[in-house]
Amino acid sequence: MKIYQLFRKLIHSYFYEIRLQNKLLLAFLSMSLLLLGIFSSVIISHVSSFAENQLLQSATETFQQTTASLENTFYSYEQISTGLANSYLFDDLMKQDMNQYTPGEITVIRQNFERSVFASVQNHVNSTSYEVDVKIFFNDDFHYFNNRTRYFSLENYLSAPWASSITQQYSKSRRGFYILPEDLLTEVEPGNFSMARVVVDKKYYPHILALLRIDMPRKYLDQMITSTVFDNTLSAVINQDLNVLACSNTTLNSLLPDLISNYDLWKLPTKTWNEITLGHEKYLLRIVTIPHYKLMHFSLVPQKSLYSDLYRIRSFLLLSVFLTLLLCIPLASLLSHSLVIRLQQVVNVMQQVKTGNPVPFQENIPHGSDEIGNLISSYNHMVEQMQLLMQQEYEYGTEIKNAELKALQAQVNPHFLYNTLDMIYWFAKENMVNEIETSVRSLSTFYRIGLSSGKEIITLRDELSQSKAYMAIWNLRLQDAIIYECKVDDTLLDCLIIKTTLQPIIENAVSHGIREKDIPTGRISINVWADFDDLLITIEDDGVGIDSETLTKLNTDVLIRESVGHGYGVHNVQSRLQLYYGSAYGLKFSSTIGKGTCVTIRIPKKTTE
């Protein structure tokens, strides 16, 4: 269950959390690794199989050539010995009465015999680099050549293992040529083997006249079977009695007893490589019999020697796959980057939509004609439409706000004008000339700036002048119950502001702040200062204040939008400021019950439109 959950987590992470470039990189590498794995597996399998077959075929050919060479060697000596046995030299020699000859004449006869008998043997022997000794064991009837160096009495050796074996086999099979292993040659120096020929009476074959024996070093055969394709290979020649005639690798002689005791070699298949196990090692065994001489030639190859070449080939292929995979990494990274870079640019540009400032792709960025290029073209078309709609919305919104402002002015101004004119009337009745002058001048300034020849943007100087005139009229009505203060740096007076921004806020401060107090007197302070590239204006009063719930609604524009009358004017100010300057600008309310309210206006600091 945990493994399943982990697997699902990894899948979810891959599809929904990892960056697209990393996904593509992983996908490319995974596909490359999969394809390389399949390709390399197939190639390694086929190459290994082919190489194994080739190596075994080469080993088989070498093995067969060695066997043929062995057989030819034995056959050549057999032919030589057969030629000698059939040459009647022995018959003629044995028929002569040596008593008729002097010792000198016997010496001449022996020399002639040796010249005739050993000439062909010696010529063949001289073609090798090994010392070959030829011995003749005469029947005891012929004792003149019994010098115990080259000529011997057969009767003295009939009890020897080799002679006994030959006479017994000859009596049964009448086979004339024998190959004798080292084990039977007790009187011969170690490290030799022999080939023997039975010389018989032509008139009576069961009668043995002599035994011709050719002795030579065993290393002659050992070297002959040493040729092999693989390292640590053991080749050997044995007879039907499992006596070893030759062995190619003396260091591996210890394997022969185990091999001979554990496997019936004469019954194993001879046309294929047999898999066997000796100790804890696995071997391949190839057997060829030489029936004419009742010999067996076999070759024992350790599988690790065979597979060492295959391992080298496999290691080379795996290294090639690894290097190819390393090459695939930068290629996959480059390919994934080329696919993702434009998508990343699309994402970066689209992020700006969240800020309310959608921008199209730049012309210097290649678009292309693929799916990503189509996406970029569609995005650019969408941005153009959005910008057009936003411009239209701005224009419509401006027109609506201007209409709302004019409606507000049409709603407020008659009431304000009526109250002001009524106040002037009473001043006139009381012959209050100075108050009449102040009220008329303030009323004129208020409406002159409010009209502003139809302009919506005026200087801060004019906006503050209109607010001062508005407060002057209020104080005439309230008999100077409100102290009006304004602090502003002269360098900021030329900054631009939407007209009739301060008046609705001041009206709320008077009507709902100061006049709600038990003693309707108070103070209204206006402060203006620069905050980097912005202009901050605070209108602060010491009225009754606003409770926290209402304050929260004011700051979220909820109460402003739901209000009517005076609240409608504040909402209009907030809407016009944000529509004209953006959502980062507008009104901010702060208040304390019983101490007053402060409204902060943030607008860009500009001196030109």
Q: How much of the polypeptide forms β-strand, as a percent range? A: 15-25%
- Approximate helicity band: 40-55%
Helix and strand content put the structural class at: alpha+beta
Beginning-to-end CA distance, first to last residue = 68 Å
- Quick one: how many beta strands? 17
Physical arrangement of strands within the biggest beta sheet: 2-1-5-4-3
Number of domains: 2
So how many helices?
Answer: 15
> Low-confidence segments, ≥5 residues, pLDDT <50?
559-566
Mean pLDDT: 79
For the report, how would you describe the main beta sheet? Answer: 5 strands, mixed
Give the overall form.
rod-shaped
Radius of gyration: 62 Å
What does this entry look like structurally?
This protein is α+β, with helices and mostly antiparallel strands and about 600 residues long. It folds into two domains: about 270 residues, no CATH class; about 220 residues, Histidine kinase-like ATPase, C-terminal domain (Heat Shock Protein 90), CATH 3.30.565.10. Helices cover about 55% and strands about 20% of the residues. The protein has 15 helices and 17 strands. It has a five-stranded mixed β-sheet with strand order 2-1-5-4-3, with helices on both faces. A five-stranded antiparallel β-sheet has the order 7-6-10-9-8. A hairpin with a 3-residue loop joins strand 16 and strand 17. The two termini are about 70 Å apart.
